[in-house]
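Q: Predict the bound structure with adenosine-5'-triphosphate.
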Amino acid sequence: MSTREDTGSDAGSESERLLFGGPLVHDAGWAQHERRYLEMSLWAMAKRLPHLVATTVRLARRADRRALRTVGVSELVRGVAQAVALVAVNSVLAAVMLTGSVQHRLWLATPAMVAAALASAVGAVAQSFSTSGQGRLEPKVERVATEMYLEHVVRVEMAAIEDAAFHRLLDSAQYGASSARRMIHYCTAVVGALISFVAAAGVLTVLHPVLLPLLVLMTVPRSWASLRNSRARYTSFLRWVQHSRAGRLLSQTLTKTGPAPEIRVHGVGPFMLRHFRGMSESSEAEQTRLARDAARVRLLAAALTGLATAATYLALIGLLLTGVMDLSVAGTAVLATRAGAQSLSTLVLQVNNLYEEAGFMGDLERLCEESAKRAIPVGGLPVPEDLSEIRFENVTFSYPRDEADEASVEKVALRDVSLTVPVGRVVALVGENGSGKSTVSKLLAGLYRPTGGRVLWDGVDAAELDRAQLFARIAMVSQDFHRWPFTFRMNIAIGRADRPPARERLAEAAEHSGADRVAEELPRGWDTLLARGYVGGHEISGGQWQRIGIARARYRGGRILIVDEPTSALDARAELEVFEQIRKLADGGQTVLLITHRLASVRHADLIHVLERGRLRESGTFEELLGKRDGLFRGMYELQRAQYAGGGGVPRQRSGGGADVTR
Ligand SMILES: Nc1ncnc2c1ncn2[C@@H]1O[C@H](COP(=O)(O)OP(=O)(O)OP(=O)(O)O)[C@@H](O)[C@H]1O
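A: Predicted complex:
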C-alpha cells in the first residue's frame, strides 16, 4: 500500500484516490481562524490576551461565579506568597553571610526563614484551592458552551442545516466547548505565571536592573521553540483533519452492525483493513516528520538558552567582581532568575495554548452569530383558525450549492409550481424519483421557504405566519422518520415532546397503527429500549418501526398530516389497513398530504397532483387522470399494472416512479 510519502505528490495515497476519489486535502473553509492564528506575531498575541481572558471569564461567570472567585483569589494569593518567599530567602541569605558566630547568624535569619516557610505554606494552600475551584469550574464551562452551541443550532432554518458552509462551521465550532474548558485551565495558568513572573522580575529589578533583560533573553529561545512547534502541530492538524476522519470512518465501519453482513459475505473486511493500514501509514509518516522537526527546533533552542544562561551568569560574576553586588544578593539573584525564567516559559507556553484553543472558541462565537442570522423567526401573524386551503403560487425552490466546491451546482427542485391542498381532504403527490414531492411537503410544513413564489395559507403568505403555530398544525411521517434510541413508549410520545406522555392517547395511537401488537412481542413491552448495544436494548423490523412512526404522527395529532411513503416497509395487509385509516382521518376533518409510488393507493384521494422534474404536470381525481389519453399519470399507472400482470406479481417497494406494482 503506497503512502503519501511514498508517492511524494499532492495527489494523495492510493487509498485516498480509490476510496474517496482524490486527496483528502485540508478544506480552508473548515476553520477560518487558522490563518489569523498562524500569522499572529508574539506581540499581536500579547495584545489580544486581555480579550481572550475576558471571553473566558465571561463564560466562567455564567457557569459558576463562586468557583471563579475562588480560582481568581487563590491565584492572586499564590503569586503574592511567591514574591514574599523570594524576598524572605534574600533576607535569609543576607543574614547567613554576615560576620559572627553561626548561632548568631542563624538566629538573625530565623524570622526570614519563618516568613519563607509561611509564604510557601500559604502558596500551597492557595494552589490547592485553585485546583479544586478549577475542577468545579471546567465541566460547568464546557456545559454552558455546549448548551450555547446546541441552543443556537436547534433554532436555525433547515436550509442552514443543509448548507455545506454552515455545516463546516458547525463541525469546527463543536470543538469550542471543550476548548472553553481547557481555556479555563490555560487562563489560570497564564494568570498564575504572570503573577509569578512579576514577583520574580520585581525582586530582580530591585537587586540589579541589568538582570531583568538577561532573564528575558534566557527565555526567548525556549518560547520561540514552543511557539513554533505548536504552530507546526496545529497546521498539520488542520491539513490532515479530513484524512484522520476518513481513517476513523474506515475503522468504525468495520465494527458497526449495519454493514456487518456485507463485510462478511462480500469479503469487504480484509479490503478495508488493507486501506485502513494505508491511510494510517500516511498519517504516521506525517507524525514522524513533525517529531523530527520538533526535535531539531528544541535542540537549537537548548543551545541558544545555554548561551543566554552563560551570559547571565557571566554578568552576575562581573557584578560580583566589580563589587557592585554582594554574594548574598547574587545568591538570591540566581534563585530569582531561575524562578523568573520558569514563569516566563510557562507564560509563553500557556498563552500559546490559549490561542490555539481560542481559535475554536472563535468559531463557536461565529457560529452563534451566524445562527442568530439564520434562525427561524419568532412571532408573526396567527395561523387562521378555520383554514380552508393551502395554495402554492408559482413556487420555485432551489437547494443551496456548496460555495467551496467548484463542481457543485444549484439544484432547482421545483419550478413555477402552483397547486392547492384543500383542508380536510386527502391530497396525493405522485411522480418519479426526484420529481420534487418531498420538497413540496417540506415547503408546506414550513421547513423551507420558497426561493420564488409564495405558499399561501388562506391567502396569507406562510413567511408572515407565526412559525411555531404553523409547526403545531403539522404532523409528519416521512420515509426516513427518526428511529429514536429510546423506549418504545418514548418513540411514540416524542410526537408531543412538549407534554408529559398521556397514557390513554398513547394507547389509542398505537392501536391505530397496529404498533400495540409490536409492543406485545417486546420483552419489556412499552418500556423496551429500542437501541441495540445497550443492556436491555432490542431491535425491531423496518415494518414494525414504520407502525411506530405512524403512531407517533397520530399521537402528535396535527391538523395536517404529511405522510411520505408511509407503507414502503409494510406487508400487504398492513398497507391496506394504513390506507384505510388515512382515509378515515380525512373523514374526521384532518388534512392528509400523501406521497406514494403505489398508484393504486391513491385511488381514494380527493385530489392527485402529478409532478415531473420539479414541475406540476397534472392535477385531478383518480378517474379524471386515468381518463386523460396521453396523460402522465395514466402512463405510469398502466406501466405498473402491466408489470404486475406480466411480472408474476412480486411487488417491488419504493423503487421508482414506474416500478411499483399495483393491486
Ligand atoms: N437536501 C437536499 N439538498 C440538495 N438537493 C436535494 C435535497 N433534497 C432533494 N434534493 C434534490 O431535489 C430534487 C427533488 O427531490 P425530492 O426529494 O423532493 O424528490 P422526490 O420526488 O420526493 O423523490 P423520491 O421519490 O426519490 O423520494 C432531487 O433532484 C434531489 O436530488
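A: The beta strands are 389-399, 411-422, 426-431, 452-457, 460-461, 474-477, 560-564, 591-595, 607-612, 615-620.
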